[in-house]
Amino acid sequence: MSKKIIVFGAGIVGKAIAIDLSKNYFVTSADIDEKSLNYLSERYNIDTINVNLVEREVVKNLVRDYDLVVSAVPGFMGYKILKYVIEAGKNIVDISFMPEDYMKLNKLAVEKEVAAITDCGVAPGMPNLIAGFYNEIMDIENFEYYVGGLPKIKKYPFNYKAPFSPVDVIEEYTRPARFIEKGNLLIKPAMSDPELIFFENVGTLEAFYTDGLRSLLQNLDHIPNIKEKTLRYPGHIELIKALKAAGFFGHDPVIINNTCIKPIDFTGKLLIKNWELRPDEPEFTVMRVIIEGKQNNKRKMIIYDLYDEYDKTEKLPSMARTTGFTATAHAGMILNGIFTGKGIFPLELIGRNEKCFKYILDYQKKRNINYEITEREIKSNQDR
Prior knowledge:
Blueprint: E1 4-8, H1 12-21, E2 26-31, H2 34-43, E3 46-50, H3 56-63, E4 68-71, H4 75-87, E5 92-94, H5 106-111, E6 115-118, H6 126-137, E7 139-151, H7 166-174, E8 177-181, E9 184-188, E10 195-199, E11 203-209, H8 216-219, E12 225-232, H9 236-245, E13 254-256, E14 259-261, H10 263-274, E15 283-295, E16 298-309, H11 318-335, E17 343-346, H12 347-350, H13 354-366, E18 371-377
Parallel strand pairs: 1-2, 1-4, 2-3, 4-5, 5-6, 6-17, 7-12
Antiparallel strand pairs: 7-15, 8-9, 10-11, 11-12, 13-14, 15-16, 16-18
Helix pairs in contact: 1-11, 3-4, 11-13
């Protein structure tokens, strides 16, 4: 009998996850947004449940009859959902960009004999998997990655569209960025140290620090240099900095016409419309992962380049595909018994297993998500 999966969240990425999994499993999508649920139930063999996923008992009752949970909820809900599912003794794949330290739930997951794969998206996610794999076969000296999801057509003033919750995007712009340089953990404000980088098929993009390294800072802290930067069209980040400086991202309530409101809530509400990714709107995902280090007494540079566009056939945005299919690959890995670990597993811990690493890349390749891999020997600093 086919396995049963419940997907929490029916946003752009949650839809992609449910659609992909429904081709091989019985899938139920749960969300408070009835319109999104109707889209899935009317077009695909997907059951839906209209529900508010805020109460522990609601979540635990929902997952009771399922073999696996995939959580695609906004980051502010992520930790609680993860905890409730683990308490219910169910395996879970999670893509939410939660601010909390999910490793605090590792002991509970082990006790409940649950596999919880976290930060399971395109980034954080795939760079972690790649880092975990190469950490087993070489001495990494430098690890860095650049990633962004952007519309193909620029629209003033932001030149940006969000494939997920604007609140989660704003979180990237406000959370202090951590990275490792010469063995030291450093912290800088998000959006700092901008640089211009050229990419084939795209052109010149602006890269800046965000706090995307997350679990890599603990699990691979022996690597002397680790950094991550987000990519946007040039000029976007100066506008975001202006909004931040003016207080539009603040969390302290202000009173307007006798109404108390948080600036961040107001801003998020406005940006939902401005950043909304329209159906059939062409967009792309671009990512570059760079690993430098020693293998067999030789210094090497290995580069993974990803360029992916909107899927016209399935009508799925690229960021939904690249994020969602990372999650569905790991879901299949658990359901097929390829991965049997118990506890909390960010993807650098999954990548240590060569069989798992190859399974994830092959799974995505079958869905036309292709990583171009370049490897060369470094003989001097001029070769970098």
